[in-house]
Specification:
This protein has 142 residues and is an alpha+beta fold. Helix content is 22%, strand content 27%. The protein is built from three helices and five strands; from the N terminus they run αβααββββ. Residues 29-59 are annotated as: Disordered.
């Protein structure tokens, strides 16, 4: 009789997916706030906002563009689209924020002033300093 050995909860992929979504949601909800009142927290966060301009949305996001984005590994981002390539094609995001927790650095980038919907992307920083796409969400794209 073999007993099935269960993985510890922190080694399950769904735990990390939820953690990334929560961190991304917190980071994007803070917008351009750079308040540092939570000194007891072990996570370091910084936010950067860019003003919306006509050049920001010079390339219109479509559902086909969104679907074509390669999403890499949820934790490492390996295999995902490069942040710089996406910015080169679609312009700077309306808001972006970088969050660091332990060895992980993540960047949330939101294109929210689009005519047809919104795009929310999360990137994971690589050892070489590049950012690779690790999750994506859209709203009302056509």
């Amino acid at each position: 009789m073999k007993d099935k050995v269960k993985k510890p909860f922190y080694k399950r992929i769904w735990v990390w997916v939820i953690a990334l979504l929560v961190i991304g949601g917190i980071a994007s909800s803070q917008g351009s706030s750079t308040s540092d009142s939570s000194s007891s927290s072990s996570a370091k966060s910084s936010s950067v906002s860019s003003a919306s301009s006509s050049s920001v949305t010079s390339q219109k996001w479509t559902l086909a563009d969104y679907d074509a984005l390669a999403v890499g590994d949820t934790l490492s981002g390996v295999g995902g689209a490069n942040y710089d390539d996406i910015v080169a094609k679609f312009g700077k995001p309306d808001t972006s924020s970088d969050t660091q927790s332990g060895d992980y650095s993540m960047r949330s980038a939101d294109w929210t002033s689009l005519t047809d919907g919104s795009v929310f992307l999360t990137f994971t920083k690589q050892a070489d300093g590049t950012w690779l796409l690790s999750s994506k969400t859209s709203s009302d794209l056509k």
